[in-house]
Design goal:
This protein is of the alpha/beta class. Helices cover about 35% and strands about 20% of the residues. The strands form two sheets. It has a nine-stranded mixed β-sheet with strand order 4-3-5-2-1-6-10-11-9, with helices on both faces. A two-stranded antiparallel sheet has the order 7-8. The structure holds uridine-5'-diphosphate. Catalyzes the reversible phosphorylation of UMP to UDP.
């Protein structure tokens, strides 16, 4: 295996599958099976899950809601997704621990870094819910933060697009895909990989990011085996 410990970032929207809202159980099961396959190879898997399929603080604020309370709703949404993912993984007989950045002890363990690392060493998947626990941040920032904390080798950003393009491939047919790109070039070209806070945190800590299409079965395995799919952002 090319990577020993990975941090997989899944957006909330990824869990919607073909639905307009909420969680698609079929998609969830597919993800769980793909994750099971890499665990069988001995990869340690931590996951940060988004909440955009349920609620985003900015969307609430644009309709007059207090931003901080909206962000609290968004963070709770990530815990809901985390529970759904935990359940799907357990259905595949994978040991899992959901840790939350917001204390919600009856539902999830509190985030404790050393405990999380111990779970990983024992072959358990650790899902980090609740984002960073702070408003005005995103789950991409949480993904980078947790990846650095647990000393992950790489962040795998699973999306529905198969990498980083020169422009939006869903809008421009002449958009070209990068196989490798530097952090500096992403910033220079104004490409969108993660929000700036998350992206610069990753750059400053020399943590590579691979953007890949998580919705094609088997891709996760290919990425952790070092196959060149998606786009790798490196120094
Ligand atoms: N959020 C937050 N702090 C964090 C992470 C998330 O306040 O550290 C809130 C924020 O409102 C955000 C929502 O949770 O819009 C859902 O997270 P995100 O938008 O990152 O989810 P994704 O786009 O990955 O589905």
């Amino acid at each position: 295996m090319h990577y020993k410990r990975i941090l997989l970032k899944l957006s909330g929207e990824a869990l919607m599958g073909d639905l307009q809202y909420g969680i698609d159980p079929v998609r969830l099961q597919e993800y769980a099976q793909d994750i099971k396959a890499i665990i069988a190879k001995g990869v340690e898997v931590a996951i940060v899950i988004g909440g955009g399929n349920i609620f985003r603080g900015v969307a609430g604020a644009s309709r007059g809601m207090d931003r901080v309370q909206g962000d609290h709703m968004g963070m709770l949404a990530t815990v809901i997704n985390g529970l759904a993912l935990q359940s799907a993984l357990e259905d595949e007989d994978i040991p899992v621990r959901l840790q939350s950045a917001i204390k919600i002890n009856e539902v999830a363990e509190p985030f404790i870094r050393r405990k999380a690392m111990r779970h990983l060493e024992k072959g358990r998947v650790v899902i980090f819910g609740g984002g960073t626990g702070n408003p005005y941040f995103t789950t991409d920032s949480a993904a980078v933060l947790r990846a650095i904390e647990i000393k992950a080798d790489v962040i795998l950003k699973g999306t529905r697009v198969d990498g980083i393009y020169s422009s939006d491939p869903e809008k421009n047919s002449d958009a070209t895909k990068f196989d490798d790109i530097s952090f500096d070039d992403v910033l220079r070209k104004g490409l969108k990989v993660m929000d700036t806070t998350a992206f610069t945190l990753s750059q400053e800590n020399e943590l590579p990011i691979i953007v890949f299409d998580m919705n094609t079965r088997g891709n996760l395995m290919k990425v952790v085996m070092g196959e060149k799919i998606g786009t790798k952002v490196n120094l």
